[in-house]
């Protein structure tokens, strides 16, 4: 089975595992997905991730984060913005704010994958990959 939008697949896997209150979720690895997972860890939406090397491309195992004994979700929402059929680009001045600054936009720039705050600070624009809140 060929997946056309691998980033949307990653976000959907994380969203579904989070809704089902799973502890971990496995995702086929790529460098872009590793960078997105690192941003999710840095921003505090997931606990951690590790790359498991196997004979093919490898697997990213993301450890999800919950609050309290009843496992209330830390990661409230994930939304893919730029899709293969419709790419969404933004300059550093017009970078979108997610939930009026509460959430995070993940942006692919010429300097790598970073958050909207980092892109504004470094004055670079790029493709808006996803919104996380």
- The percent range for strand residues is 25-35%
Q: How many β strands by DSSP?
A: 10
Major sheet characteristics: 5 strands, antiparallel
N-to-C CA distance = 30 Å
Radius of gyration: 15 Å
Unreliable spans are none
Q: Helix- and strand-based class?
A: alpha+beta
Mean pLDDT: 94
Helix count from the secondary structure assignment:
3
User: What pattern of helices and strands is seen along the backbone?
Assistant: HEHEEEEEEEEHE
Any chance you could write out the topology, listing elements then pairs?
Blueprint (H helix, E strand, L loop, with lengths): L5 H14 L4 E5 L2 H12 L3 E7 L6 E6 L1 E2 L4 E2 L4 E3 L8 E2 L13 E6 L2 E4 H7 L3 E7 L1
Antiparallel strand pairs: 1-3, 2-3, 4-5, 6-10, 7-10, 8-9, 8-10
What would you note in describing this structure?
The chain is of the alpha+beta class. Helix content is 25%, strand content 33%. The chain is globular.
Short description:
The chain is an alpha+beta fold and 133 residues long. It has three helices and ten strands; from the N terminus they run αβαββββββββαβ.
List key phrases describing it:
three-stranded antiparallel beta sheet; single chain; alpha+beta; 10 strands; 3 helices; five-stranded antiparallel beta sheet; 33% strand; globular; 133 residues
């Amino acid at each position: 089975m060929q997946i056309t939008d691998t980033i949307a697949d990653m976000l959907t896997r994380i969203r579904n595992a989070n809704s089902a209150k799973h502890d971990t979720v496995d995702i086929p690895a790529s460098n872009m997905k590793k960078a997105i997972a690192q941003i999710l860890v840095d921003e505090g939406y997931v606990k951690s991730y590790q790359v498991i090397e196997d004979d093919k491309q490898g697997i990213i195992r993301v450890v999800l984060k919950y609050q309290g004994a009843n496992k209330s979700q830390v990661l409230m929402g994930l939304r893919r913005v730029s899709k293969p059929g419709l790419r969404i680009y933004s300059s550093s001045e017009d970078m979108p704010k997610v939930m009026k600054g509460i959430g995070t936009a993940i942006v692919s720039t010429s300097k790598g994958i970073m958050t909207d705050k980092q892109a504004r600070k470094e004055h670079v624009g790029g493709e808006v990959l996803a919104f996380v809140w």
